[in-house]
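Handout, page 2. Input:
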Amino acid sequence: MSDEDVNSMATSFAKRTALNGRMFLGTRRIKYLKAFAHWVRAFYRTSSIPSIVGLSEETFKRQMDGAAARDIIRRNMLRQTKTSVETASPGPLQKETQWKH
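Output:
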């Protein structure tokens, strides 16, 4: 589940009628759902199985906050890497032996 999936799910629930189960998730719940998805992905990235056994509410929320923070760091690193690659690129060739300026 991606961040976009969580956003579309929240929008979908909010657009329903009261008889069809309208629900407003709110910003805090949406952030926790996104953090939960990142927390689960972190387990799969390390070939582990996600489990809440032995976690209190406080430690679980701390782990989800950490997962959300790691996602922000990961996105920033990806953005910086793309910028570095684009800057270092000499650009397209004009001819087979000549670069465009």
